[in-house]
Design a protein that fits this description.
By secondary structure, the chain is of the alpha+beta class. It has two helices and three strands; from the N terminus they run αββαβ. A hairpin with a 4-residue loop joins β1 and β2. The model has no long low-confidence stretch (mean pLDDT 79).
């Protein structure tokens, strides 16, 4: 299961995908910029095996929690 990082953990992230002890085996920490309907933007990080699966984790999180459309760009 993908881990969505809290604010404290996100502040430790610098740059694109990197190996992190916060992630599971085979996963990297991806930085994501997410755009929402109405123009709001959020940044954060997620542990995933690829940028594509990081994008899916972000979309799933927002759809499950808030029922809003999100367009993430993870790298």
């Amino acid at each position: 299961m993908k881990k969505i990082l809290n604010i404290s953990e996100m502040k430790q992230v610098r740059g694109g995908a990197q190996i992190s002890s916060m992630c599971g085996e085979g996963e990297k920490l991806y930085f994501c910029r997410t755009s929402f309907e109405g123009g709001a933007v959020s940044t954060g990080s997620v542990c995933a095996k690829s940028a594509a699966s990081a994008n899916v984790a972000i979309i799933k999180k927002y759809m499950d929690e808030a029922q809003i459309a999100a367009t993430p760009q993870c790298f």
